[in-house]
Amino acid sequence: MADSNGINGTNGLNKPVHTDTQSQGPRIGSESPLGEGSKGPHEKDPGSTHINPQLTTNQGRPVGDNQNSVTAGRRGPITLDDFNHFEKMAQFNRERTPERVVHAKGSGAHGHFLVTHDISQYTYAKLFSRIGNTCPMFARFSTVGGEKGSADTARDPRGFALKFYTEEGNWDMVGNNTPIFFVRDAIKFSDFIHTQKREPGSNLKSATMMWDFWSLSPESIHQVTILFSDRGIPDGYRHMHGYSSHTFSMINAKDELFYVKYHFQTNQGIKNLTAEQAELLAGADPDYSQRDLLHAIEKGDLPSWRLQIQVCPEADVDKFTFDPFDLTKIWPHKDFPLIDVGVFTLDRKPSNYHAEVEQAAFNPSNVLPGMGYSPDKMLQGRLLSYPDAHRYRIGTNYDLLPINAAKCNVANYNRDGSMRFDGNFGDLPNYEPNSFGGPKENPKYRDRPYKVPADNGTVTIARYDHRENNDDYTQCGNLWRLFPEDEKERTAKAIAQSLGQTPLRIQRLQLSHFKKADPDYAARILKHLGNNEHPEYLHAPDAAELVGAARLPEK
Ligand code: HEM
């Protein structure tokens, strides 16, 4: 029988277990045979993987003694000036980020995606615009219910989370190894997951909780059947398919919408563990799947998956005999055959687990232009849940961490927050709209409206223009006209004092709004502006035009 690391090369199941030296690969600090990992760009980077022979504090001060605390006399006590000692302790106490509330135990690897077939008739996403397009990607596989230290061989669905770094932003496909799920409404997710975790009193796992919930939630029966079938315990992460499970959508250049399901077919073939094998491995090698994945990559046996899609044109969703957006249902392959798209290959181990795997944050709402969601209630719930979970688990600026950061230009007005470690967009404007040339929306990327059934016909999900058929001026003008003479003067003066401090183009535009509310309103402000610091404004060629027939202030 192997010891707990399986280092004897056997696991009692006549299955080879990777030995310590095989699976660990290069020792800490040595070069990886598989490439550079995520080396810092230069040796002065905090956390750089470049070996610096001089030990330093977090602030870079060279350390002279890392073996002995500073003490008052040979026997102690330790004195407060031992800053390095306290820094080490404090950092250590904060090493753990909260584990994921689900899918806590996982393994990741870097890779590449290659487009092998043309699906541009379904989507205008640049990634799929040409056969041969590639992008870097990252995958994280996981179990669902167990804690971060739990055994890899549990009978449990496997998470299948992929992040594709494209020139139009990150596409995250956060799926499972099953095409369906236990519940069909996101409001039931936390209740369901509680049954997969520990019983509140005893802190033990409880079959009663699980079956109590399932027996009261018959929509779970399809997924429960998969869970207890031969596919319930995959043999590592390489021998299983992945599924979006949810229905998403694609939009093509003609603005036509197609509903799609994503499938990732393993090129390694399906392999599962028996319940007995899984149980033994849980003791002999609880990190079995992690070891298997890393070992395969180390020895150049690179795992790969084919991406295929099932497609349903928007007009055909009414033809289903069941709700096509119900996550407890599959789309039959005979009605919706699999269409080839591409292949991804995992070719590089993470060089640091915490930085690249633990801090990886996947989010089903990360889709590309030319892709969209669907009315699936579970998906809608997930769009809300994931970024919220990341902000709690990793922090406000989790998007900036190298493993999560988009590899294309990011330009917006979100700012600040704890651990903002980039330049925070310097002194660029931090609001929109602005007239200082900041990034602007481009209507070509507007979400394509789509229809969903409603009580009386259909309702369109869209970004409705809040200005359409809206009058912003009449009520304001009415209020202005109600003001007594002296209040009109005071109001106009107060506005002029503030508005007068701004560039002329802003004054002009704002005056045009006041004029639409009431020409007298604009004229009075203009008069006070003339008394302010910008008398030249009064000579601007369009000043008279702006206030129209309203009287101009005297020079
Ligand atoms: C309403 C239903 C669901 C909710 C509210 C939900 C919520 C969550 C949350 C909060 C996490 C932890 C995220 C983190 O801390 O990084 C998570 C992880 C995950 N979920 Fe869900 N989930 C739902 C359903 C599903 C479904 C149906 C799938 C698969 C089709 C799925 C796949 C995953 C995967 C793969 C991860 C791990 C991602 C990673 O590797 O970091 N979840 N989920």
Q: How would you describe the overall organization of this protein?
A:
It is a single chain. Among the domains are: 106-400, Catalase core domain (Catalase HpII,  Chain A, domain 1), CATH 2.40.180.10; 474-546, no CATH class. Helices cover 25% and strands 15% of the residues. It has helices at residues 20-24, 83-93, 189-196, 207-215, 221-227, 275-284, 288-298, 353-358, 377-393, 474-482, 485-499, 504-517, 519-531, 543-547; strands at 106-115, 134-143, 158-166, 169-176, 242-243, 248-251, 257-266, 304-313, 339-348, 371-372, 450-454, 457-461. A hairpin with a 5-residue loop joins strand 6 (248-251) and strand 7 (257-266). The longest helix has 17 residues, at 377-393. The model is unreliable at 1-27, 29-43 and 547-555 (pLDDT under 50). Bound molecules: protoporphyrin IX containing FE.
